[in-house]
Amino acid sequence: xxxxxxxxxxxxxxxxxxxxxxxxxxxxxxxxxxxxxxxxxxxxxxxxxxxxxxxxxxxxxxxxxxxxxxxxxxxxxxxxxxxxxxxxxxxxxxxxxxxxxxxxxxxxxxxxxxxxxxxxxxxxxxxxxxxxxxxxxxxxx
Length: 141
Description:
Elements: E1 7-12, H1 15-26, E2 29-34, E3 38-42, H2 49-58, E4 64-69, E5 83-85, H3 92-102, E6 105-106, E7 118-121, E8 127-130
Parallel strand pairs: 1-4, 5-8
Antiparallel strand pairs: 2-3, 3-4, 6-7, 7-8
Domain Glyoxalase-like: 7-130
Protein name: Glyoxalase
Organism: Amycolatopsis coloradensis
């Protein structure tokens, strides 16, 4: 017996704003918006729900995200869990510029100089990393 990673839930002061940011980062769409209290996003489904469920049961799937309204903002501490994103159709610098334009901010969590990744924070301060590019010509096996 096994389980599948299907959802990542993130507490948020403004779920719609954070969902919009992450839709821009990941090219996701809003699945459901429960009056701004819970906003669920994920990849644009290309098949009916029953086929998506069969694929999920069959192996790893791209997880969706849910943003849930909470009254308090993020505490000032490094996240114990963070996302790593990789550009798939551009170099790292081009993607960095795009993420900053979407509302990300560079942040320091003690990573030091000369790293191959860039530490960023989303509009509510949740850290994530921009890692190497997986674009053709940028990353080869």
